[in-house]
Amino acid sequence: MTAPLMTIARGNSVTAWELSPVEATYYPGQPAKARDPQNYKYVNGFVDVGDLPCRVATWRDVATRTVTLRTDWPVESLYLPGSNRRVEFSQFRHRPTRLARWCRTTLAAPEDRYCSFRLETRGGVHIWVDGELAGRFEPYTRNHTQQTVVHLPIRASGSEIVVLTEDMAERDTNWFFELVLLDAVALEIHLPGARLGDKVETLKALSTQVRTSGDVITGDEAVTLLFDTPSSLPVDIRARVKSTSHTHATLLDRTVALPAGVTEVTLCKGRDLPDGYHSLELEFIAGDSRVTRTIGCPILGAIAPEQLGADLAARKARALEHAALHGELRMGTAVALLETGRSDDPRLRPIIEETLLAIEEHRDCADFVSVPLLWAWMRHGSAFPPDLAERIRTTLLGFRYWVDEPGNDVMWFWSENHALCFHVSQLLAGLSFPEDIFTASGRTGNEQATIAIERLERWLDSVEEEGLAEWNSAAYYPVDFIGLLALVELAPQAIADRARQLCDRIFTMVALHTLAGVPSGSMGRAYDKELRAGPLTELAPFAAVAFGEGWLNQGVASLPLFAAGGYAPPDEISSYVEPAPGKVLTARYSQGFGPAALLTLYKTRHVQLSTNSGAQPGGHGHQQHVLDLRFASHPMARSWLNHPGEDDPWGQQRPSYWAGNGVLPRVGQHRNAALVLYQLGAQARLDFTHVYAARAGLTHHLVGDTLILESHDGGLVAYKSTGPLQPITTGPGAGIEYRSLGPRQGWAVLVAEGQSLDAFAAYLGQCRLRLGSGGDTLELERPDAATLTLDWGQGLLFGEQTHEQGFPGVFPAVTLEDLP
């Protein structure tokens, strides 16, 4: 037998496999009405809505089928040890799709014996050892990890292990399996049939280290790939840049050479790509060795924010023109084209035809494009040629507007933003075709509109009373605006007035959390592609248009509706955006059912600290972003703290490495000081918490075990931890990541302005941070204020007073005072 690729011991996972191509089969099942748990009490996380038709069909098939081992499949690629201990193929499918992939490896034991493995999976797994079925585990629960123990016979001469991993994809599909060795034995892993080549180790090292230069790449700068160690041999790198928006358009496909002995290679200039936080798919090639990796690639043409002028109408016109000229090929751009008199633009028909196809196929997120299509139909219907007009009419009459109408799709109806967009679509379609019959429901348009108004009233009742579960979300506020701005413009007066008032409230929260043109702050739902994108999010142009300073970009989910419509944010909230020199703005309020969030904001002209102290401590943190720091010195100058939810720094799970929390902390904030207490427990997948600290606009200082971030304009922030800080110097976290290890740990975050670095460091030296009561309390002693105590059960205590009792409700209580 050849030399092993690697050796694993107890607790290690089997991470080296040959892979077949993915088999993807459209698998809708029989149309049926869905269970409707909609109570308009929205939560952050997965909602169990029962088994959809595709999963019912899957259960039926799994119960009766016999799976036969296949060995004739071609090896498409290799799964090699890297950043993920799981064998993971997570993805997003807009339609119900059965997924399958064959995986093969060889394990050798010191002697012939049975070995026990913990098998974790989402989906189903079959395992064959030397041609004999040795394990079958098919829970097929949607996005819920299940585990069992399998005992596999492993020979000293090597046993071939073949795994068939399957899942039923319904939108976001976290598809993986993991085999963890439980026995105290060393096992060798071989891939004798794989064309690894003799250069695979070099490629693996490069793929683990790779990242782009800087937190963002401007138009004049080069898109450069960086590595920690020089390549020992020449390597070709195929780079495909793709949009992270709903279009997933390929923006660049280029192969470059990485010579031996160098640590960087240039792909292109920033100006060769549109602005955006893009996905960069890399394939490292040397001889017959190939390794793949996907990382993030932020492009921002101009660092300085644009001044859009003092007149809102002029700013809207500027944004609408920008969307018409530069918007991505989505329905919002079609709206911008029609609103600017460009009904003859050659892009219009392809955009509308792709929109209609998404609605006809009942793809997930079809509700996000059906609303702007209806906007275009109701305001510009006469501009459509007869064939397109007839297809629009047929498509909208055939759409499924809620779960009480039969269907076999995987459209998601139950989150806050989707429920709104479906109800708005149903209302506007009903108003557009009042006497026609809608085929999925059998109702007339008038009946659809009546039901939609009832549903919208319930949705608005909930959000008006409890706030938004997706507060401050740079991903989902623009989706909320799809529905709300359409209601303001096109709905009956009573509903339009309520939608306008809710827009006022959302824009108030945006104003509070926007600094130097970039909306930020604690969020109800966050993704890496928003947290690390700054002005590249779809929300950023809303702030630019509303408040006069910022960036326009290609995002068109709802900005054209804002720019073309009559809605105007309240004049008075502009004062929240940029406090005057020497002033500090504070705000406290709640959001979401429960409430889900108790939000505190501390904001000066140069830095803001935002937290949510309402998250359930110790719980699973789906996408809650509980602590956020934003600096005015640079559009990417941002920092936060979290417990990673997965292994891979570039992963996209919910929670991911940087977005959300694997285990939620207890959080408390009093003015410019926040405390964060973690109890990770023995079962946490990763045993550390960490700080993300951008380099753009910030200088990092490690003073003892304290990290101080100093902004270029004078803002100061300190992270103090109850354990030693470990700066990460290699790989994707190099220079931006600082870790603290341990099952129980605490952090203090302190903000200052108008001090020298030395004075701030001296002040921090007088502060004491310590865990108490076995890790159930965290205390911060400061020389100039009462002791802050964060109690795992009670929350934040300021002296002897429970601080969390002071939250006023869903309307922000805002104060502006002199900076101490």
Provide a descriptive summary of the structure in words.
With 820 residues, the chain is of the alpha+beta class. The chain has 4 domains: 6-190, Jelly Rolls; 200-299, Sandwich (Immunoglobulin-like), CATH 2.60.40; 306-567; 584-810. 23% of the residues lie in helices and 33% in strands. The chain is built from 15 helices and 46 strands. A hairpin with a 2-residue loop joins strand 32 and strand 33. Helix 4 crosses helix 5 (348-360).
What labels describe this entry?
Jelly Rolls, single chain, 820 residues, alpha+beta, 15 helices, Immunoglobulin-like, globular
Compact description:
By secondary structure, this protein is α+β, with helices and mostly antiparallel strands. 23% of the residues lie in helices and 33% in strands.
Which helices and strands occur, and which strands form pairs?
Elements: E1 6-8, E2 17-19, E3 23-26, H1 53-64, E4 77-79, E5 87-88, E6 91-108, E7 113-122, E8 124-129, E9 132-137, E10 146-154, E11 159-173, E12 176-181, E13 187-190, H2 200-209, E14 211-212, E15 222-226, E16 235-242, E17 250-258, E18 264-269, E19 276-286, E20 289-299, E21 306-307, H3 312-326, H4 331-339, H5 348-360, H6 366-380, H7 386-398, H8 416-432, E22 437-438, E23 443-444, H9 445-466, H10 477-490, H11 493-513, E24 514-515, E25 518-519, H12 528-531, H13 540-547, E26 549-550, H14 559-564, E27 583-591, E28 597-603, E29 607-612, E30 627-631, E31 638-642, E32 666-670, E33 673-679, E34 688-693, E35 698-703, E36 706-711, E37 715-721, E38 726-727, E39 737-741, E40 744-753, H15 757-765, E41 768-772, E42 777-782, E43 785-791, E44 795-798, E45 801-802, E46 813-818
Antiparallel strand pairs: 1-13, 2-4, 2-6, 3-6, 5-12, 6-11, 6-13, 7-10, 7-12, 8-9, 8-11, 14-15, 15-18, 16-17, 16-19, 19-20, 21-26, 22-23, 24-25, 27-28, 27-46, 28-29, 29-30, 30-31, 31-34, 32-33, 33-40, 34-39, 35-36, 36-37, 37-40, 38-39, 41-42, 42-43, 43-44, 44-45
Helix pairs in contact: 3-4, 3-13, 4-5, 4-6, 5-6, 5-7, 6-8, 6-10, 8-9, 8-10, 9-11, 10-11
